[in-house]
Amino acid sequence: MATVGAQPAVARDPQQGQSELQSLAARHLWLHFTRMGANEDNEVPIIVKGDGCYVWDDQGKRYLDGLSALFCVNAGHGRENYAKAAYDQMTELAFFTNWSAAHPTAIRLAAKIAELAPGDLNRVFFTSGGSEAVDSSLKLVRQYHKLAGRPNKTKTISRITSYHGTTMGALSITGITDARTPFEPLVPGGCHVPTPNLYRMPEGWTPEYYAEAVRERILFEGPDTVAAFYAEPVQNSGGCFVPPDSYFPRIREICDEFDVVMVSDEVICSWGRLGEWFGCQRLGYQPDIITTAKGLTSSYAPMGAVIVSDKLVAPFAEQDKMFSHGITFGGHPMAAAVALENIATFEREDLCGNVRAHEGAFREMLESLYDLPIVGDVRGLGYFMAIELVKDKATKEEFSEAECDDLLRGFLSHELMDRGLICRADDRDQPVVQLSPPLIAGPQQFEEMEAILRPTLAEAGRRMGL
Ligand code: PMP
Fold first, then answer.
1. 267 lines ligand 1 (CB under 6 A)
2. For residue 84, how many other CB atoms are within 10 A of its CB?
3. DSSP three-state, residue 161
4. 173: CA distance to ligand 1 center in Å?
5. Long-range pairs, 385-388, Cβ under 8 A, ≥24
6. What angle do CA 213, 218, 220 make, to 5 degrees?
7. CB within 8 A of 173, min separation 6: which ones?
8. What percent of the chain has pLDDT over 90?
9. Does the beta carbon of 163 lie inside 6 Å of ligand 1?
10. Can you give the pTM of this predicted structure?
């Protein structure tokens, strides 16, 4: 299914006229991944306040934020200690760079991240967000191989339907055709292999084949041309695909065999989303690089990071060498102060522990929806779950593109929002509803989710003739 971006727009009541904010938004604000034509008949949700797992719009309506905004407000909304940390930092030192200089907050944050990250991931390069982290990692990997005497290693292997960001480097790694084609030609060398999809595994394949497909692609491209393999621990796009247990250990072996850098893109899957600091810890593998953003500050401030192994840093540490790359706001003091406060909050409240304590109940609630004819598959890990919607449960028959459009954009996106639940209805592969609540969520929020999901999905099924 082809459409990128199914952000909800609320149908406008023609009697009511538009608020000033709505008309200013319609005239001036360019929404990301949102059909612009939709603005004429629909109103964009304007969110004005947040507290814990809930947000309110400009009409005073309350929503359960079942998506942590965009998989990112991990610690929940409305925490004053984060604002205090930002205030204290800005009044002490509002800004200084990490170009040939440093400031204490970035230093302490880098050290803290290195302490939490697994193995020898000891060096941290800060960015302003996720796409910049992925783009920076791509440049780092290319220069690393050049310094190590392997100048032809420039290609990347990632997965079909994966999302790794929108800047040109990150987009060449992204595997979503509709996100790529308007901007081609992209950075050369972006190769793609199938994502482990155990629900729709092609006949004759085994779960083990998905990793072997990476090896085959490396051999096909020529091992001396392949620089890096990129994957999320649990892939967001297409709906929270969890790989078979053998996948990442085997990928690790394959990367070692061919000197391919293994990058774990954890822009979503780190900072407790899967119940551990980092997703690779939950899935039991050791990457050479972790890219992260979003939950690093629980999105109270924009910040990303590339966390790099000692092995990759070594050739840069020689006398006259440097990573020829920099970003003004990388390691911004205010964002770094907020990130440190965020990590301290995680430790104080054991937010990773809360996810592990309640993830079973979260999954059970979603699995209880299996009695609905439209619910085909429930999958995911931690507080990162998806429901795949099907036309026929027994045969796994897919909806057509037009049906999908009607189901998601014609009904589900705004209906769930109207009933007070923020989640994501998306069809970058098959249609899915994704849920990724703040890590403080528990049984009460799961109950509220079910009370909205059950009647809405039942109605969606009836609407699609099931
Ligand atoms: N990688 C992954 C896995 C992501 O999910 C995202 C954002 N959703 C990005 C990269 C890009 O991050 P950003 O939107 O902060 O640029």
1. yes
2. 12
3. coil
4. 12
5. 385/240, 385/434, 385/435, 385/436, 386/239, 386/240, 386/432, 386/433, 386/434, 386/435, 387/239, 387/432, 387/433, 387/434, 387/435, 387/453, 387/457, 388/199, 388/239, 388/430, 388/431, 388/432
6. 90
7. 134, 138, 156, 158, 162, 164, 165, 190, 230
8. 94
9. yes
10. 0.96
Measured CA to CA, the distance from residue 362 to residue 442 in angstroms comes to: 8
- Whether ligand 1 lies within 6 angstroms of the CB of 232 is answered as yes
How far is the centre of ligand 1, averaged over its atoms, from the C-alpha of 72 (Å)?
10
Centre of ligand 1 to C-alpha 134, Å, is 8
Positions of E strands within 128-240? 155-159, 190-193, 226-231
**What ligand 1 atom has the least distance to the C-alpha of 304?**
15
- Ligand 1 center to residue 20 CA distance, Å? 32
Of the candidates 307, 229, 296, 238, the one whose C-alpha atom is nearest the C-alpha of residue 269 is 296
CA–CA distance from 27 to each of 34, 37, 303 (Å)? 14, 12, 29
Does residue 165 have its Cβ closer than 6 Å to ligand 1? yes
Tell me the residue type at 106: A
Contact 254, 214 (CB under 8 A): yes
279 lines ligand 1 (CB under 6 A): no
**Residue range 83-130, pLDDT digits in tens:** 999 999 999 999 999 999 999 999 999 999 999 999 999 999 999 999
Is the pLDDT at 17 greater than 90? The verdict is no
Output the pLDDT for position 43. Answer: 86
Please compute the mean of the pLDDT values over residues 34-45 and round it to a whole number.
78
